[in-house]
Amino acid sequence: MKLEQNNIDSKYVIQSYNEEGIQVNDEKMTRSFIIMSDRLLRSWQPDNISVLKPSDLEIIVDLEPEIILLGSGNKLSFPEAALIAPVTSKNIGFEVMDTYAACRCYSILISEGRNVAAALILEK
To answer: How far apart are CA 122 and CA 117, in angstroms?
Structure first.
């Protein structure tokens, strides 16, 4: 699915996604990654929500976003509550959705100028 870009002043934008990967600018992402308007972490470890560890979330928290979008893969799946608690205790918004929904939400939030990090799991 191709995404419409509405006056986005961002270094990194999600242009489209499909079963083969996610297009960020001119680069096709085929592994899990973290994207913010000003940075792209191309290699994020988890390839399934079931293997998500606290250290995977600490990487995102250290980026100091106001909102974290966790794309859980091909379908909506929630991580264990114990994993999320350290994030929410820091007053960071935290939303879980399937990865494609997270792509759409990320695009909307950066178009509004929000400080959002999308951690997108691409399942193998």
So the answer is: 16
pLDDT at 86: 87
Span 41-85, pLDDT tens digits: 999 999 999 999 999 999 999 999 999 999 999 999 999 999 998
Angle, alpha carbons 71-49-46 (nearest 5°): 90
Q: 116: which strand partners?
A: 67
**Spatial CA neighbour of 5 closest among 19, 25, 22:** 25
What does the domain layout of the chain look like in residue ranges? 14-120
What SS3 class is residue 55? helix
**DSSP letter at 69?**
E
Are the C-beta atoms of residues 52 and 31 closer than 8 Å to each other?
A: no
Q: Quick: pLDDT tens for 87-97.
A: 988 999 999 99
CATH class of the domain at 14-120: alpha beta
Give dist(CA 110, CA 12) in Å, integer: 10
